Amino acid sequence: LDVPKATEPRGDSDGPRRGSLCDRHCAAINNVQGDLSDLGPHLHRPRVLPAMSPPSCCQQHSEEVCESCVVKTTLTAENVVEANKLSNNYKFGFKKWKSHVTARPWEDRSEIVKELYSDLNVIRGSGGSTVTCGNVLYLLLFGWWLSFIYVLMAAMMFITIVGAPYGRLCWDLAGYFLWPFGKVIQKVEVPKSHRALGAREAGAETSGAGESSALLGGPVPHRWRPWCWADGRHWQRAGAVVWLCLGYPMLVLAHGLVCVIAWLLVILIPVAKLNARTITRVLLLPPEQVVVRRLRMTEVPLEGEVILCCYRAVNPYYYKYAVDGINVFAVNLLPLVLVTLVLGYVDSHNRLTSSPVKFTLALLSIMPLSYYIGMAIASISAQSNFAVGAVVNATFGSITELTFYITALIKGSREGNRCYAEIVKSALTGTLVGCVLFVPGLCMVIGGIRHQEQRFNSRSAGVSSALLFLSVGGVFAPTLFSKVYGKLVCGECHNVTQNPLGHYLCHNCHFDLMENNGTLYYSHVQPLVYTVSLLLPAAYLIGLFFTLKTHTHIYDIHISGCHMPGHHHSAVVHWSRWRALVILLLSTLCMSACADLATEHISPILTNSTISQYFIGVTVLAMVPELPEIVNGIQFALQNNLSLSIEIGNCIAVQVCMLQIPILVLFTIFYPTNFTLVFSDLHVYASMFSVVLMNYIFMDGKCDYFQGTVLVMVYFILLAVYFFAPSPSGC
Fold this sequence. Notes:
Layout: H1 16-28, H2 36-39, H3 54-60, E1 73-76, H4 80-89, H5 111-117, H6 133-159, H7 164-178, E2 183-187, H8 192-200, H9 238-264, H10 269-280, E3 290-294, E4 305-310, E5 322-323, E6 326-327, H11 328-346, H12 355-382, H13 386-396, H14 399-415, H15 419-450, E7 454-455, H16 458-475, H17 477-485, E8 487-495, E9 504-512, H18 515-550, E10 557-560, H19 577-600, H20 603-608, H21 613-623, H22 627-638, H23 642-670, H24 681-697, E11 702-703, H25 705-724
């Protein structure tokens, strides 16, 4: 869907010439587009509020200045909680969250989404051909061996004699699970007369075998027999006992394995639903009540309850599937966290797995935990006032990165290894460069594939850019100070010309700040570091006050209090505030444990790897925790909401400089480590160049996929520089 563009406001008839230039000023102001996937049919076309109409603005101001001419985007949410969440997305310093924090009304969802959550018991009038690539994939992965297991179970049940009815059921299900598409499993009821007859006469055959259905074609194969009680005493029969002891457990294991594999593959979730419903419904019914039929292309209704009816094994839209508001990928990765913690702390001597495997598992576990932390922060902020939301976002917004950085610094301090401090600096620089270049660039490229040109609010991006310039200058001020006043010390020098006054070639040179017992560092550099660490958070608070209180019109957002006709829904939140708080605390605790395992098992990688430690820091350690944010930015860009995609990267970069680094400096005061706010030249040049390039690209308030490609290519060039750079001294 394309977001409707705001119409240009027109001047009144009294002053068309005077209003024309002002109209152009007003049209130049970029509208913050709404989130289509969040709002769906509730997205209103951007309109000019009566209090800020362009004609009155143009009559009251000169042609040169028309700043109050603001075209506002009106967003209508389903409920108050969603309105708060949408508003928080455009607030400086708040996490930009894509998913809903409340349950969306069923009637507001698209037909594609409704199909994802529907049970496999809906019969279509004309489903088309069932021979598809996905169905053939099911046959190759699961169908043949499931059918074979049912054939074996059928033979076993026939051998027991008393389990013969279940043998016939397994034989029918063997054909069904070989190719279940276009077939239906139905529960039929035994007529009361037949139940009474079966209770009185053990050898009588029941009537009604001639029933037929035009939809299914042919007679209905009733399976009840005089020895098969269809009442509540079904499980008292000997055959049922044999079934529960021999057949049912084996089939539960087989279907459970298929269910787990299909669920983990996500696009095969229909197969998982098929097998789960078989375990919980089909296999627990009396065999005489289960009928397997082949559908025909007609619309005559079936007789009896439809238990299973599947047409497709693969649905690519299941990446949208959510369980209690949690995306299916985050659900699937949650067991990985448990495996990581068990292997990390139980197998401390690496008898089961090696250190690189544990390090990889720990990093992968950070991704779902970051998602849960983001979801909890968004839920608490949407259900709380501005002050609580700001505190939660400022406190837990950077908890993922800080837990890793602090545990790495503690381990480096205990071992006396400076390499951990350098890794932390590389990760900080990698997060800054990645969020300035890679995140917005990737969003521009992917969004530009669907939309030829995307526009964003250049004024709000300008505020973030100004804060980013300030923060980068403050962070690297001690480094520049040390370059000017520090003493250059080299580890090894060779005279190239064999002349005492000739040229010397030196290696491993650095600026020594500890000359004369560290007078320069302790008297000049360290006070400068503490001063910068106090000023940067203060600038962050001023930025919050500026953008959220005194100049809210820059972000140009208006949340309407009205709802669409017929849609008066109360907010049914996925997570209450207390539940979100508990999940936030538990996720933070698990995050700390995974960060501890990652730093514990990174040593072999740093010592044995031929790759530069700079490269490991700026790529793996920097970008893996930001993957949920990158996914959010891509989804916003696909919905033509590039403003939020850009703000995601800018917000993370600003938090790195204005919150994370000052917190690390404050931590070193109470727990001395090797971390100093003096970066290498490579970090300084890469960060400065990235910020300048980002501001140049965002200057005009519009972009396309080519500009995004430029940002991504520059990012990869910097990665190549880090890849071939020698490891920092001390590593």
